[in-house]
Amino acid sequence: MSTLTKVLERNIKVIEKNADLTEGRFRLGHHLMPPVGWLNDPNGLCWYKGRYHVFFQYAPFDVEGGLKFWGHYTSEDLVDWKYEGTALYPDSPYDCHGVYSGSALAESEKLHLFFTGNVKIDGDYDYINEGRETSTLHVESEDGIHFGDKEEIISFEKYPEEFTCHIRDPKVWKENDRYLMVLGGRLKGDKGAVLVYESENLKEWKFKHIITTPEAFGYMWECPDYFGKKFLSVSPQGLKREEFRFQNIYQSGYFPVKEDGSVDERDFREWDMGFDFYAPQTFTDNSGRRLLIGWMGMPDAEEEYTNKTIDEGWQHCLTVPRELRVKAGKIFQYPAKELERLRKEKTILDDEKSIVEVRVEVNEGFDLLIEDIAVTDRSFQISMGGQMLFKYENEIAEIGFSEIAGAGRNKRKAKVSELNNIRILADTSAVELYLNDGEIVFSTRYYPDREDLQLKVKGGKFRGNLWNLRKMIFTK
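Below the sequence we write its predicted structure tokens.
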């Protein structure tokens, strides 16, 4: 451990020492969040030696962002979590301006982490076409907690010349007897693309080809993920915002991959229609399930909306783990089954009345499941004390927030041909809505100004259950 590493480690431990993951009005009950400071992209998601590992982009010294490290959580069951501390520090010549995003490859005896090292050269540069070095780095671990020396496996000097300095976020997987990697990139001329590399030993990597769309689909593709030989997930920047799609400043979605390995922008489907979702990553666990976790935040959105947790000294969280299922070429996402273990007492909602009302405790969180919906009025609505409103009418689903609860967030929409069921996972300052078994998802931060709210359901026949949720156990 270098002297710089020791200093960084000591300083982080000092500021984390008094951090309590359960203290604060808006501290979350079933979403992973930083002990202090800032969190963004999920990194290094994997199952390794009997535990789930979730790393994340972490800026412990600045609630608004800043110098990036990797924080680390582990769990045996996706329900209760242990904070393992800071896993990677910006302490080498390759990453002195930030340990950027990446992935994990879990093999029988070793856990491999791959990530981007960020270096910004002092001077008058645009840091797009010049002035930035972003090499791909690698570290190993035999226990998933302690990591060895960093090594540069792809130098920034060896990337294809047609790319700008913006190449990052390696995702690595094994396919038969070889290893493959995708990197997100920005071509000269402002066109997003993915670079594909191949290796036999995880040390020496050979460039294979580029994946992009015929026409420019955004100027940069971040956080690529290739899985099942069928889907390419990216987070494109630079798409024109529209009423029913691309509503945020940046987007995240996936392409079905054609037999020839190409993708088409017309096939792109967004992962999430809410205000706060970006940079998702997937992995396969020991049972063979493919799980997804995303950042419940949005880059560069501070001019439009904010997070009230800033006053508590922290910002942002991750989504709950979602299990992915493919139906007719479309990916459905739904909360992992294990989260049902958080449910406490159940309230059966009676739809014999024209309006069903029940009080819910926002400071604990709740799980609402409404099935077999038959819209009998002009619209079907679920409201929470005027703080949040979900509305479905004329084949359009919409979520909206009050000025106080939204903290600048107003409305988001999605086209849905019919509404069969809806599940709402509500936390103290986060809510995820799953429509039609996860065909459409809305993820958003929100900040209700009361600890309990009147939940109202009206406009249809249905079967409904409501569970209060216990908080996850967070340990350090």
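The chain has a mean pLDDT of 96.
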